[in-house]
Write a structure and sequence with these properties.
Shape: elongated
Radius of gyration: 23 Å
Strand content: 15-25%
Number of strands: 11
Order of helices and strands: EHHEHEHHEEHHEEEHEHEHHHE
Bound molecules: uracil
Strand order of the largest sheet: 10-9-6-7-8-11
Structural class: alpha/beta
Distance between the termini: 66 Å
């Protein structure tokens, strides 16, 4: 395509391009990559090379999409030597991306790779933020949901294809309906209703970090409707009462929690499900910590990377739980 004269001051004025965005302007999802590669410069379409194959294949698996996505790049011309685009080019090109955002008004933006994530959302590093869902992000003045995702090009390096499920699960989040974040504290009273919301419940205990004798100080329960309840360990009767009414206990590495609960004299549900073991069977090559697994399935970043201030903000907003309640 031809370039507008205003592009003459851009360092990529003489580079192959521009490669314009591709898709319906009615698209609900805007995918933003870094810059076209050699194949994209040749075909004139974004993500048509090896990375594109991974991205488009993953998007298909993450579907069904509300409307086909619109695919574009931070920078529209092919950088020399396939390098990361220069800052000057990103700045010069941002007005075109801004126009695409204004035209499409996507409800979700997928930031593909480190560069779109750092320059549009000001978050680094990508390994920390991928999979996080920012519900009211400001992307060049457009308010929308933003989701950082690994760049498929990274998967083309030896041994990295094992990360593919993370791209699929992150793209899937862009397809989910947007749920109001309105939070009704009166829901919390539901915990005292005679019927449990579900007979399957997640059980998690907190213990002191002492190597020789770890002491249990808290027990938490989570139900399938996203309600959670957490007790100080001194409320033995309430804890046993709840345990008695659960048919299936869901643990992350229950071998530990069950042993401690039994040591403390509790009777635990006979049927168990272990998320760590389950994750071993579906994604054997990925890490199996709760931190990592939840970044795959929930809308949160890996919280062990969060600063203290960020953690308390996460708690305050209470994004993931419909209600949470700590009666004691
Ligand atoms: N990588 C990108 O970031 N964009 C493309 O269009 C192709 C490869």
């Amino acid at each position: 395509g031809s370039k507008p004269p205003s592009c003459q001051t851009c360092p990529y004025w003489l580079r192959p391009g521009p490669v314009s965005g591709e898709g319906e302007t009615s698209a609900k999802i805007l995918y933003i990559g870094e810059a076209p590669g050699q194949q994209e410069a040749a075909s004139g379409k974004p993500f048509t090379g090896p990375s594109g194959k991974i991205l488009r294949g993953s998007a298909k698996r993450a579907g069904p999409t509300p409307a086909a996505g619109f695919i574009t790049n931070l920078v529209k011309c092919h950088p020399p030597k396939n390098d990361n685009p220069q800052l000057e080019a990103i700045q010069a090109c941002s007005k075109f991306l801004g126009q695409e955002l204004q035209l499409i008004k996507p409800h979700s933006v997928v930031l593909i790779g480190a560069l779109p994530t750092s320059s549009l959302l000001h978050k680094t590093p990508i390994t920390k933020w991928r999979g996080s869902v920012f519900n009211d992000a400001n992307i060049l003045g457009h308010t929308c949901r933003a989701i950082p995702c690994l760049h498929p090009a990274g998967l083309l390096h030896k041994g990295q294809m094992k990360l593919l499920p993370l791209i699929v699960s992150d793209l899937r989040k862009a397809n989910e309906p947007i749920i109001s974040q309105d939070f009704d504290w009166s829901d919390a009273e539901g915990f005292f209703a005679p019927e449990l919301p579900s007979r399957t419940a997640a059980i998690d205990i907190e213990t002191t970090a002492d190597k020789t004798f770890s002491e249990m100080f808290r027990v938490g329960f989570g139900f399938s409707d996203r309600r959670t309840v957490s007790y100080d360990a001194k409320h033995r009767e309430q804890i046993q009462n709840l345990l008695d009414r659960i048919d299936v206990g869901v643990y992350q590495n229950g071998a530990f929690d069950i042993r401690i609960l039994q040591r403390e004299g509790y009777k635990v549900p006979k049927k168990i499900f272990d998320t760590m073991l389950a994750h071993h069977t579906i994604n054997s090559e990925l890490p199996h910590s709760l931190d990592s697994i939840s970044s795959e399935y929930l809308h949160i970043q890996q919280w062990k990377h969060l600063s203290k201030a960020e953690r308390s903000e996460e708690r305050r907003v209470g994004k993931e739980c419909r209600s949470r309640w700590s009666p004691y």
